[in-house]
Structures are given as C-alpha cells and as structure tokens.
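Researcher: Quick one. two chains, 1079 residues in total.
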Amino acid sequence: MPDFLLEIGCEEIPARMIDAASLELRQRVQKLLERERLLPDGSVDSLDTPRRLAVLASGLSSGQPDVTEQVNGPSVSVAYRDGQPTPAAHAFAKKAGVEISRLERVTTPKGEYLSAKVTRKGRAAAEILSESLPKEIAAIYWPKNMYWRKPAERFVRPVRWLVAMLDGEVIPLEFDGVSAGNESRGHRILADRQVRIPGAGSPYVDALQEAKVLSRARREEQIRKSLDAATRSITGARWREDKPLLDAVVNLTEWPSVILGSFDPEFLELPEEVLVTVMRDHQKYFAVEDSGKKLLPHFLAVLNTDGDPGGVIRHGHERVLRARFNDARFFWQTDQKHPLRERVGWLKNVTFQKDLGSYYDKVLRVQRVASWMCEIIRQSGMAVRPGVVHKAACLSKADLTTELVKEFTELQGIVGGLYARVQQLDPDLPEATRFAIADAIYDHYKPESMEDSVPRTTEGAVVSIADKADSIAGMFALGLQPTGSKDPFALRRQANAIVKTIAEHKLPISLEQLFDDAREAYRGSQAEKKFPPTLDYNHSVKAFLRERLEFYLRDALGYKYDVVNAVLAADADDVVNAVARAKAVTEVRPSPDFESISVACKRMKNILRQASEAGRPSATSIDSAALQEPAERELAAQIPHIAEAVSRLSNQRNYQQALLEISHLRPVIDSFFDKVMVMVDDERLRSNRLALLQTLLKEFSTIADFSEIVTEGKETNESSKQ
Amino acid sequence: MLPPKPNPLTFQELILRLQAFWAQRGCVLQQPYDVEVGAGTMAPETFLRVLGPQPYRVAYVQPSRRPADGRYGENPNRLFKHMQLQVILKPPPENVQELYLESLGAMGIDLRQHDIKFEEDNWESPTLGAWGIGWQVMLDGLEITQFTYFQQCGGVDLDPISAELTYGLERIAAFLQDVDSIYDIVWARDPESARPTTYGDVRLADELQFSVYNFELADVEKAWKHFELCESECKALLEAYAAISNDKDKDKNGDRKETKKTDGLVRDLAHDRTRFPLLAAYDLCLKCSHLFNILDARGAISVTERVGVIARVRALAVGIAKAWVDQQRGKPAAEQKSTEEKKSKQRAEVEPAPLSS
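Model:
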C-alpha cells in the first residue's frame, strides 16, 4: 500500500488562483486513481503554497489487479470446417492467448460459439501514473495562463521542478520538458536550496517543514495566532476579521509571521473607509480596532519570513503606509477644490461604455428612470423624497473624476457620499437633506453581492436600482447580455442586486415596467443608433430577470425549487409579491388539503392537455344548464365564492389565507373527480366540464401554479430541474 | 526610529550598481532612448527587440514621461517623469527569478533582513497592442519592480518569450536612503566635500515647468496638428514598406524562403527592405503616443475620441511590429543565428490576437 506524491514546483502562483487549482488537481488525481483502480480504500490530500501544488495519496495499490473475463469468439459453424479449425478460430485463439484445443464452447440463443477465459494483466501504478499525470497537470484550469518558452504547454507561471514518487521511488514522468525527480525546493529566502524528499507521505511534509514550508492549514493557523499575539500588546485592541484578506495572505506565504506597525494618529482624521481600503486592498494589512470598533493607529502585516527582530521590515512597511496615507490626504484635499456639482459636467469626458456614451449621458438617464420610479412609489402610498433622489442621481457618478477614486477605484460611490457630506451642494439645502443625499450616493453601488446589505434609505435604493437597470438595459439593447460563464459587465450581479433591493425595501416596482423605462431613457440617444434593430430586447430581458428572481428566491431565500417554479409560473414581475407568495405556499404546503389540491391541479392540467391534443375544445364559458351531476353543480357554485375570496385576500397580500380558502375546496374537488367523468362522449357535457376545470385552474393559479409542486412520492431529482 | 544606514547608495550609485550587475550577466548596456516615451517598454530596445527570433539581453535606464501624472513637484511620491531601469532577457534563463533576487543583493539589500513577495500583476498596453503576465515585486510592502513575461507585442505573439524587469529607481533609492520624499533622494555626493546633490536639485524645475506646460499651456490645436503630421508620415512609411513587401511576394508566389536565390531583382528588393526606415516610422509612432498623452493631460480628448485615438496609435504600433518581423526575416543568412531559430521564426508572424488571454 504505497504512498503517492506529486508536487508541481512553480514560480509564484497568483494567490487568488491557488485554492481552486489545488482542489481541481486533487480531484483530478483522485478520479484518475479511482478510474485506474489504484485506490482501493486510500485517501487523497493536497498541500499547496505559492510555489507548489502537491497531491498526496495514501493506501495506493502498487498496480491494477489482473482482470479475468469470459470472451466469446466466432460461432462454431464459422470456426470449424470439416472438423478443422478455420483461420477465424486461429485468430480468436491467438487474441485470447489460449491454445485452440483449450477453447471452450458456449451455447447462446443464436447458436454455439467459441469462448475463452481471458486474463488481462493489470498495469503497474508507476506506469499508469507516469503516462497520465502530465495530461492531468496540463488540464488544470487557470483564469489566465502563459507561455514561458515555445513550443510548449501553457501554465499559470513557469513550472520549474516536479516531484513524483511512490514511497521512496521516483515515478518517471515529464511535463513540458521538466523531468520529475525527488528534489523539491525550500523557502525562497529562509531555505534557498534543493530539498531531497525521502519519500511520499509524511516524510515529504516533514522535509518541507524542515525547509520552512508549511501547509495551507498550518499557515492559516500560524497567521491567526500571530495576529492575536501581536494585537495583544495593545490593551483592548482587536484585529479586524477579514476572510478574503486572510485567504490572500495565506496564499502569499510559505512561512508566515506577523508584525504590528503604527501610523501617525493624525491620519485618523481621514475617513475610515479610505484608511481601511489603503491598508487592506493596497497593502494587505489587517486593521486594528478598539472594543468600540473604532480604528486604532496600528496595522498588522503578514510577512513571508520568520520575523523581524531588528524592526527593519516594520520600519519599511510604516514608511510605505505613511506615503500612501499622505497621498490619500493630498487627494482628499485637492478634490475639495472642485466640488461634486462642478464635476458633473466633467463626466462628459468619462466613458461609461463605448457604445453607450459617457457617464454624463448615463446620469441623465438614471435621473429620468429614478424619477419615474419615485412617482410609482409615491402613488402606492410609500414615502420617498424625489428631490433627494434627483440630486443624488445627478451627483452619483461625479466622484469618478476625483483623484481619490482614480487612485482607489473600489471607493467609488463611497467617496461621493463622503464628499457630499462635507460640501455645499446647494446654498439653500438644509443639512439633513444634504446628509440624505450623501447617504444615497454613498450606498448606490450596494449591494455588491448577495451577502452585502442593500442601501439604507428608499432614496438610495431608487438610485441604486435605476443605475443598475440603466446598465443592464443598455447592454441588453446592444446584444451584450451574459452568456454561459461570460458576464464581463457583471450584469447578473447587478440584476441580483436589483431584485434583492426591491424585495428588502418592499418597493412596488414592476420589473417589466422598470426595464421598459430604462430602455425608454435611451430613446433618441446616440447610443440607440448602435442597438441592433433585430434584437428582441423585451424577451431576453424578461427571461434574464426571471432567472435572477428565481435565483434570489431559491439561493438567497432558500425556497424549494418547485415552490419557486410554481410561484413564478403565476407571475414573475412583482418581486415583493413573488416573495410573499413563495412564503405562503411554503407555509401551507405540508397540509394534506394542499397536497391534494396540487394533485388535483396536475390532474386538471393533464385532462385539459389531453383534450386539447385530441381536438376536443372546452366551452368558452360555463353553461349552468349543462351541469348535470350534483358534484359538478356544487363545484361550479363554489368557484365564484372562492375566486372572490382569493382575489380579496390576494389584494391584501394575505396569500396564506387565500391558499387556505383554496384548500377548503378540497372535498368538493375530490367528490367531483370521484363522481364525474369529464371526457364523456356527449360533447355538450364534456366541453362544459372542460370549461369548469379551465376556470378553476385559472382562479387557482393567480398565486402559484400548483401543478408545479412536487407531491409525495413524486420527488424528482432536484439538480435535474435546474 | 532605526539608526540611519551607514552608507546608502546614492541615486547614481544605484544605477551604476544595477548596470554593472546586468552587464556582468551578459546584457548590452544601452543608453536612454532620446524620444519621449511613457515607459521603458516603449523604447525600441524593448518594443522591437522582443519581436522575432534573435536572442538578446539589454539593460538601460529610461526616463519615462507621463504628463497626466505630473504634480508640479508638490507631491513627494509622484512624478511626471520617472526613471526606470529596464532589463530584457530574451529568452529568459531558467533561474531568472533568482538572478533578479541577486540583483537586489547588488544594491546592498540583504534579503534575509527583509520580506519579499511576488504578487500577481499582469501588464497590458492597449496603445502598443502588448501584454504580459507577471508580478509586482514587493519589498517590505513597497513595489520595487515590475516583472513581466511578455506574451504579445504589437499584436504579434512572441517567440521566444522575453522577461522584462522594470526597476522603479526613485522608489528604490528612497527606500535605501530612508527618505519620505523623492526630492530628498541624494542623487550624488561630492567625493571630497561629501556635499549632497539631491533629486530635487536636479529635477524639481523639470517637474514644475512640465506640469505647467502639460496641464495649462500646451497648445491643443498645435498638438493635434503634430499628432496628425506624425501619424500621416508614419502611415505613409508603412504603406511604402507594404508595397515593397507585396512586390516581392507577387514575384515569388508569397514563398518567402526563396528570397535568397541569386535572382537579381529579388536580392535588390530584399536589400531595399533591410534599409527601409521602419525605425524612423517607430519614432513617429512614439511621438503620436506622447502627443496623445499631452492632449489627454490637457483634457482635450473627449470621451468619444479617446478610444478612437488609442486605436489609431495602436494601428501604427501593430503595423510597425508586423513590418519589423517581416524585415528581420529578410535579413541575409549570416545574421541568422541558428537553424533552430529559423524554424521558430515561421510561427512568429501571426494575426493580432485579443489583448487578454
């Protein structure tokens, strides 16, 4: 049961790519070992650092087991002529590796055939691995890869060494001119040497540790501990937890340590957003805060070395941070020379998208869409301040011209909000109004992910939605909608953000109306001339939004896929309504009455479909004179009551009660199906009954299409529905 | 505070050390190119040398002008014109990273006392139709070098690949001397009096005056005229070159391998091709690029124009790169280095590919 090791030694792999590549390589090797029957009950593990991707497996077979199987050859009548073996018999015997005299005969329904037991020798593990591993290495997906010499393989960075071993034996293999051996390399600075690997498994891990290289888990542990230890020297201080940053520094180090540095408390006058962005995004430092989460004038840097006894490294980091903060302060001060309102005109020189014009054009469109939205929101009785929305939309992109945003692009919106707070936007503006405008600007890129929060105010929500709808509408009108894994403008993320914002702010915004308006805002523009005339904008936008709403209900809110399908089949335009309906359907779903209604709906749908396929139409309306059986008369009598109640309750958004009303109909429906035959020969009765079902189904389906609900015993594979 | 380092290198010593280091490793020491460029990459010693099959190693300092980055000499970290030390290793040796780290030792940096990281940073120049893959090298949190494996230049896939090391000299000097402002860097020290001459002494007026010019006084209309003149002359040269190249192709049915036949006409044309001034065309392209930068700093390029103007400069750069590859191929056999390279050169000319992989 030998241990296996493959290490790909590489120049520094981008930190953001390591985790995915490591997982992929491990899975590839695992699948290879399983496919080749080399992994009876062993396990596969990985070890990765910026300079290596390694896969370790234990409990390998040293070779494939031999396989014996019965193989049939030619029929006896072909194999023998006059009692003598024909060439066909000779050929089969040769192929099977058996003497002719020892061939067996089997009788099949088609006649008697020659047969033989054939044993295929299993191949040695080393042989298989040496042949297959290079292909697996070459197949790893990289978001961006390169050549370093030609003709050659592409890889993320140049491959400089390979280690491939079964226990202590090297597996001979080659990838792109590099031959595998048993020599790895240690930490670039602390153990800059060839490291002889005595064997796969723990000897490898030990040898690496000796050479100052730790596994991912060990590095993360060491960094967390060191961050804690370094922070403890300041009373009451904590380091700010930041998982993406932690992942980044874990994947930038082989032997990490942490230093605590300080900066001039004067810089704390700058907004915290700016300081944290500089530290986190530009310098990969952890911020330090007090127990009230207030920023302290310290930072934590993760080093790829074993410490900084003389303080030289700390001094260097402090120097860099000081320069960065000075820059930020300089930008902040310079930017104030030209207030946001002056910068709006400058946006004529900032491209939004090459065919959609400048950000100035965009701002005008966003203002129009936002004011239409305000009108709808107001009509519904919700409070919104159109003046605040208008002004915020106008200033929303002005910060793109500021030095601070040019330097720290991730602060777009936030900087605009911060500047709006400290600047005079309009001489007559009360401070509270200015702050409301500032908040709306600050939030208008939110939510940046499904985990991120939505804008705090309705005004911020409106600007955020209008901005995103404008981008989506423009791109779709140009025919640049996302396809497959390609979504260069992050339109899916933006549409998700719209859905989430509408849902959480409970805005009475119809998606169709919103995207009609967003498209309308392009009317007569230069951009519109670039729109391909043959494009079906409405259709593609509608399908896209339905998909996003489905994603939101299912993945963000956790509703079952069949509930989501049922709810969206009824309507996928009003987000708030769809959420409420999904909630109601989920709540009544376990009740037996509801189950039975679902089954009945499926039955009605089937009957109607079969009738239509058989060319048997339903009547246009229910003719009460043609209702013969008591059960159908009863059902027909109930429908208007139920329809009235459902519609009344739905208008109050009391969907749960409405659904209960529907489920109360269960005995009547059950009795109808028990006693009444729909597909009778009498056309008048039949078409009338079909009309009855049609009406019933229509009334029921305003909340959800119940036939989509998967009922007991009919659970289908969820993944196949996606 | 740390005690000041005993004898940190002056700015000019830093340059001398790095040049000596790379000269010892086989680099030709070139002098800065004397046409305005935005980066060392744009000097012909990089842009043209990385094309085609001939191996080459070169190092040079390149003052790099970026008009929009000027700050009137008021910002301690930003310059309109900064100095890069550019190293091209074509093809890159296997130990290129180790060589680079050794060069840090040559400037007196003991890596065991510092924290060094190679962080992903890919480089792309839309104006040059060029891109590469690599890192920014971080020393104690300071980006000191851009390390790039060139993949494409002037829209031409490179074969062999070149490694480009671009040292940010001001940053490194400020780091070594532990000063907070670029202008406080000691550029030189009088050997007798030890009196320092600072970066500010040497360059401050340059920064101030060019900021005034680039942001306030550059004549937009004239700059456009200059741009158009340079562009049209560059285009005319490229068209003339294409005409020669096509004539030859027609004669030989496009079979370029036969240019060395003793056919008099073909020899003459081949001769014509090698003396054709593509290098002058490239200078004109560089001037366009610089004029574009000035116009940009003046805020004279509107949003609709911008993409188009970049595309115009790129069209020149791509045209020159393709012509250059063609011209190099036409060189007499004596200048070809090996049969191995002849094989690879046939792959060298390709259609411009998209700028990202």
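DSSP finds 26 helices and 20 strands in chain A.
Researcher: Thanks, that's what I needed.
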